Amino acid sequence: MNGFFAFDWALESSSPVQNFHFLFKPPGTFNVANLADAIEAGLQGINPPDVVAIICEAAEAVSVKQAFEKPLLVQAASRTSNKVCLCICSFNHGGTVTLVDEVTNPVAGLGRLLRGQAPAIRNAGLKRLFSAKHVSVVAPPGFTFVKPSQKRSTHFLRAEEALTEVEGVQFLAFSLLEKLRNRSLKVGAQLDVIFVDTMGIAAVAYALREMYCALYEVPKPPIHPR
Question: Can you tell me whether residue 211 is helix, strand or coil?
Fold first, then answer.
């Protein structure tokens, strides 16, 4: 989806609201027409989701909400009829997903239902991102892959097969924010340098650096191969 990374997630709960369609918005400006198309695409199908949720940086949540005053998004929001909740969620420096506003068809307790679900939501997105054919390669029995860092693994990810679109790259960078927060809590210092052991994920490193520096308001650390 141009401008947004779309994926589905099912809440494992007894709640009547279970099926979510997420639209991850990378940081920065966005095209209103692309968002309208993404919303309408998410509503297609025999069984539409219970909730269509836009995920954006916390600092951008207000501008996303204001965009729904424009005719294209007013029309797209009307497609939810009276059945599907359209909402806006934000993420902070630790990657926690929080409900900000419900544009149409509010659901009682939706914020509570989403609380603590960030890891499950991220995993659903990562599964969608790396589900492309030939992305995951398993070494033959008795063999292992050797990375440039000399680490060995029985599995190898062909990053270039999955990270073909900017939105996917940005989502993967977002998925790493929790690890950076945990590192900050343990080490107590900001990043000095970001190492990459293969140029296939260099784009993720640059996207992560931009996101990290914007959220933590710190200077850009250098990126080096390892």
Answer: helix
Say yes or no: 12 and 53 in one domain: yes
**Per-residue model confidence (pLDDT) at position 1:** 52
Nearest 5°: phi and psi at 132?
-60, 150
Q: What is the pLDDT of residues 143-164, one digit of tens each?
A: 787 776 778 888 777 776 677 8
CA separation for the pair 42, 53 (Å, rounded): 10
Same domain, 22 and 118: yes
Residues 32 and 53 in one domain: yes
What are the tens digits of pLDDT across the range 88-112?
A: 999 998 999 999 999 999 999 999 9
Written as six digits, the tokens of 151 are 């680490």
Q: Report helix, strand or coil for 20.
A: strand
Look up residue 191 and give its two tokens: 């990043």
Residue 130 to residue 118: CA distance in whole angstroms: 18
Which ranges of the chain have pLDDT less than 50?
A: none
Q: What is the CA radius of gyration of the chain?
A: 19
Q: Is 76 in the same domain as 46?
A: yes
Q: For the chain, give the mean pLDDT.
A: 89
| C-alpha to C-alpha distance for 77 and 36, rounded to whole angstroms | 8
Number of H helices, E strands in the chain: 9, 11
pLDDT of amino acid 75:
96
Helix 71-78 vs helix 32-42: crossing angle, to nearest 10: 10
Is 19 found in the same domain as 85?
yes
